């Protein structure tokens, strides 16, 4: 299986790590072996992903003499909790895994976040490799080091910053991804173009059809440039005060939608798409985007089969739901808005009336 | 309340922090205030310690305008688990605590370890202050950054390295400590002298009666020199491969005792004392300690009301129990032994027969 591979190095001093992006990376044990402390790994996956990809990953490792433990969790955001986390610890302890055992996450963002958190906390930290199998996890959770689980009172409330040794983004795995999940990932890809990379946005406009068809070269390039943008933002702002907040473009509106509809009814990426359209509308009211720019934004989301209209919840309901969001500073809702395509700002400096008009659409 | 205070600075680059040691520190809000990001704290304590000291700590803070949340957990090592940890998260979330809320641990090592771990993981990390109220926690867990909880399959299996902003060791709190708990803490104090600080050991010999009587100046000095020794060892060996292992003097034998008798029947420090005597006996068999030195070691433990004889479990039982210990490398039991008072080595290079003789005593 010949394959081209792109590699992005995430620079974090002695915690730097490579992200390899390409086809059929999953079964290339030689990519993984140099990163193991000892020939022992525990692969964490779920009941959906394991039947598709566990053997492809585990067998070549076993052939290379690696002892592989498989930990298969139930599938779903609802299981991203302390009980499921304990299943990982239980399996590690039952198998007497020591500090030199590497945890490998094989799955989407839910598996990645939970496995990363287990790695951060098992024996106060063991090595960790990410093999994200959704587009969203390939372009988003591969970079930034956030790991964690949900609490009944809030999403991602418990966690740790913990960096992987290595990320393998195998574009082939996306072929089995449900179409809606693929689109949801594309929403975050488009986001990077919108907030800080107009050239990437232009390129995406030309290549969106190929991306939706999972053309290999285009998919790989889209992942590479997304991770690079995220890495740049995160590096510039380790403490999440300034530019990092722009990664939340569309998210304050989007969380209100997810919340109102019940988590999981709208996928996160779908809500972000509709939310980004709302942010664009408000930006236009402030004179920061023109009609043509707004039309381009709508068009690319449509081409990705993403919703461009948020549900009509009523202005007050929106305000209420958005107020619950953690981006509120001193009672004012801080929003990520656009000042042209490829340029975003975080601001609470807009007329309340303009926001209400956007929310009443 | 006039009081003298000693301060030890633990040097860890941008994670450095002070340990203040002295009388009546608990109620000096001005020691704490400069370390708060915002005037909001959550004090975690237990049903034994809170009635004794919560008000002394909380009231002056409230007078200074700090919002104080009190989280009172059940008392005991048996509660150092994921369920109790969740009680902390629940309370923090119910009170809408944000990233600027400081967690304060008020209690012994169990409260300190759990609170530190909650601080490491709540919202991926919030600030943390230690107020250890047992001698053991003042001289041991104040330094080193280890936090965590137990798992049914092993002690301290889940955790994180996480440094506090500040440690307050208030010697007054030791006055309510049960006598056995005080002695157990003294075992670790003596340990520092034995492994690396002969002058401290000499000083302890002269001052052990005053220490047991909780003379203020002597107690403060003993805590200061203990923390300094631990800080030196930890700084020299962040990754626990070399010198840090000497902190386990007496612990491999001691864990076997704790384990065999059922956890909690022998206090940890009591088992460490008996274990240290066994290590001394083996060291003598190797010609590394003479009779007079062994006698000095026994004498100081006796003066601290600590056991100097381990239970007679039989050699094979000991070997078996010690084999379970994580300090086994390639089937040989690595032990911390003495080469004189104030000089220890970690070695698996001793005749098996000598170990069997020590274990048969
Ligand atoms: N750590 C971070 O920085 C970060 C960033 C963004 C999102 N997240 C988290 O990621 C999670 C969302 O991630 P997600 O969108 O990947 O969701 P997900 O992990 O739930 O995956 C979506 C669905 O697709 C399935 N799936 C995964 N790979 C597949 C494949 N190749 N073929 C077929 N089905 C496949 C999954 O089993 C699941 O049913 C959330 O919990 C979110 O909080 C974390
Ligand atoms: N983090 C580290 O580096 C480190 C080091 C050593 C031990 N530990 C951990 O510490 C724990 C043992 O700590 P410990 O010996 O302090 O036990 P502990 O916390 O259980 O305290 C012993 C008993 O004394 C009570 N108590 C505490 N302060 C008191 C006071 N001032 N007056 C009266 N009663 C008081 C406690 O409520 C408890 O009942 C273990 O879980 C161990 O794993 C951690
Ligand atoms: Zn998102
Ligand atoms: Zn100890």
What order do the SSEs of chain A take from the amino end to the carboxyl end, as H and E? Answer: EEHEHEHEHEHEEEHHHHHHHEEEEH
Strand content of chain A: 15-25%
Most residues in contact: chain pair: A-B, 24 and 24 residues
Question: What structural category arises from helix and sheet content of chain A?
Answer: alpha/beta
Helix content of chain A: 40-55%
- How many domains of chain A? 2
Distance between the termini of chain A: 51 Å
How does the SSE layout of this entry go?
2 copies of one chain form a homodimer.
Chain A lengths: L4 E6 L6 E6 L6 H4 L7 E7 L2 H15 L3 E7 L8 H13 L7 E6 L1 H13 L6 E5 L2 H7 L4 E6 L2 E8 L4 E5 L8 H18 L1 H15 L3 H21 L14 H11 L6 H18 L5 H13 L11 H9 L4 E2 L2 E2 L1 E4 L5 E4 L4 H8 L2
The complex binds nicotinamide-adenine-dinucleotide (NAD) (2 copies) and zinc ion (ZN) (2 copies).
EC number (chains A, B): 4.2.3.4
Main location (chains A, B): cytoplasm
Cofactor (chains A, B): Co(2+); Zn(2+); NAD(+)
